[in-house]
Amino acid sequence: MSLSAIAKPILYSYWRSSCSWRVRIAMNLKEIPYDIKPISLIKSGGEQHCNEYREVNPMEQVPALQIDGHTLIESVAIMHYLEETRPQRPLLPQDVHKRAKVREIVEIICSGIQPLQNLIVLIHVGEEKKKEWAQHWITRGFRAVEKALSTSAGKYCVGDEISMADCCLVPQVFNARRFHVDLRPYPIILRIDRELESNPAFRAAHPSNQPDCPPELPNK
Ligand SMILES: O=C(O)/C=C\C(=O)CC(=O)CC(=O)O
């Protein structure tokens, strides 16, 4: 086995990137030790655009995970890799219908909400319109998530076991608060977010507990 295959995984991460945060939660839940390599999405126009990092992730985004001698990108693909190679503390239910529900909620958030309100899109939309834009897409998506949860949720998004859906939901709720979305119409989302707040794996993955979190939290 090569040295890189047994090295401690390295996660290229940004403290308040919701996609990095999903993977941090999954790594923590599965108790996989890893080192963080911070990539600032804002310093000098964004370190994700430098030549060196483009070699790691040609999408010029975080996260990227170096693990088992491979470099993986895209948070959902990474979570599935972790699930398939580290089945301890499963993040997908056994039941096929419940699995479909987990994937549905993951997809709503990771395709239907977050990409529309991420940094590159908001820069394009412009400072003046960005808050209204982000609120629009998060509200639209949360309506669908809340509806899905009305039949799937137990203690967590799907039943009583934490799944990939929860790894995606909590960071998206943080983004919703950041853009001052009125969350009162989504009581199930709020209840699950509150439930997971004190979970150690979620707490350790929180932006405020990251090595690159600035001492003064900007809230723009
Ligand atoms: O500090 C910043 O303002 C820069 C970037 C982010 O927040 C990350 C995002 O683009 C949002 C997200 O991950 O959903």
TrEMBL record:
Molecular function GO terms recorded: glutathione transferase activity; maleylacetoacetate isomerase activity
GO biological process: glutathione metabolic process; L-phenylalanine catabolic process; L-tyrosine catabolic process
Originating organism: Drosophila guanche
Alphabetized SUPFAM superfamilies for the sequence: GST C-terminal domain-like, Thioredoxin-like
Family from the record: Belongs to the GST superfamily. Zeta family.
Record-level GO cellular component terms: mitochondrion
Pathway: Amino-acid degradation; L-phenylalanine degradation; acetoacetate and fumarate from L-phenylalanine: step 5/6
InterPro entries linked to this entry: Glutathione-S-Trfase_C-like (IPR010987), Glutathione-S-Trfase_C_sf (IPR036282), Glutathione_S-Trfase (IPR040079), Glutathione_S-Trfase_N (IPR004045), GST_Zeta (IPR005955), GST_Zeta_C (IPR034330), GST_Zeta_N (IPR034333), Thioredoxin-like_sf (IPR036249)
Subcellular location: Cytoplasm
Record's keyword terms, sorted: Cytoplasm, Isomerase, Phenylalanine catabolism, Transferase, Tyrosine catabolism
Residue span, GST N-terminal domain: 7-90
Domain GST C-terminal: 95-215
Pfam families hit by this protein: GST_C_2 (PF13410), GST_N_2 (PF13409)
Protein name: Blast:Probable maleylacetoacetate isomerase 2
Needed cofactors: glutathione
CDD domains linked to this entry: GST_C_Zeta (cd03191), GST_N_Zeta (cd03042)
Catalysed reaction, written as an equation: 4-maleylacetoacetate = 4-fumarylacetoacetate; RX + glutathione = an S-substituted glutathione + a halide anion + H(+)
